[in-house]
Amino acid sequence: QAQGGYNVYRSWDEPGGIRDELNAIAQRNPQLVKRVVLGRSVQGREIIGLKLTQGARDVPDGSRPAVLYSSLQHAREWISLEVNRRMLHHFIDAWRANDKEIRRLLKNTELWFVIAANPDGYQFAFDHERLWRKNLRDNNGDGQITVGDGVDPNRNFNEHWGYDNEGSSPDPADETYRGPSPASEPETRALAGLIDRVRPRFQSNLHSFGEWLLYPQGWQVGTPDADNPLYVALGGTDANPAIRGFNPGQSADTLYVTNGETTDYADTNAGTIAYTPELGEGVPGAGFVFPDDEALIQAEFEKTLSFHLGLARSAVDPDDPVSPVGINA
Ligand code: 0X9
Ligand code: ZN
């Protein structure tokens, strides 16, 4: 059992925790994995990006069509980290086992994993407050992190930031506080910097909960991006979704309006086909507290597998995407 008495979940800081694991993965797989420190959090933790591609350390970043798999912007959404961590292992294990299809994908694409986009908040959720959402910006500068501190990492991007004052909050105490200015937070700059640099063709920005498969734009209803046929080709429809039991849809229409949001940023500024899967609860009523249960966590991962593989397959030749649900683009 780990620190905090969890069976499956591991904090960032603990020995053998997520930070140690990511570092060990990079160290053990020099041919396949390159570790990049994308930035440092408010409290100085590394925002670690792992690039997976054949000859990772020899080929320049951004030289192959990229996919970005990101998770844990919101501190309490531990299932997002676990699902993404398992996706990372899936690629590495299959590559090491000489799986032909995975070898082909990893020769022709570069897959970026940002497993913990908000490591401070994640650690805080283990140590102090299981339901913490935001980063650890000390909004009132009193030297302590308490209710009312933090910036929402998914409202701080420089894309319609604060638009119309609806879909994010100017109030530091609010759970959707957008921060004092666009990209004011180092966690935002780490992710946005990577997006700017490698211009991912596809992104999965994992969150929880609700079993949605959301896509841009979030900042207003009925925007043209929703009509991009790729979003439906790869994400599917309510009747035939790319993740079993999930409902695909344009995020402002389907869920609620947001602004300064990550996938809006990637879509608009890098041309990324960028999804926000909102994972399930594991058991009804669990909400953000997905059970610490190996079988349930593994099942949630397996649900997402074909969708996530579909993004990598489509990146091999972005002009000829491969729909995991058989809908023509
Ligand atoms: O509000 C969010 O940031 C996401 N939901 S969560 O419960 N995980 O906090 C949803 C973001 C999806 N994007 C839009 N709705 N635009
Ligand atoms: Zn979230």
UniProtKB/TrEMBL annotation:
Transmembrane segments: none annotated. Residues 142-187 are annotated as: Disordered. Residues 8-315 form the Peptidase M14 domain. It comes from the Bacteria. The active site is at E278. Belongs to the peptidase M14 family. Carboxypeptidase that possesses the specificities of both mammalian Cpase A and B. Thus shows broad substrate specificity, being able to cleave Cbz-Gly-Leu, Cbz-Gly-Val, Cbz-Gly-Phe, Cbz-Gly-Lys and Bz-Gly-Arg in vitro. This is Zinc carboxypeptidase. It comes from Kribbella caucasensis. The chain holds residues 102 to 430 of 1056 of the full protein.
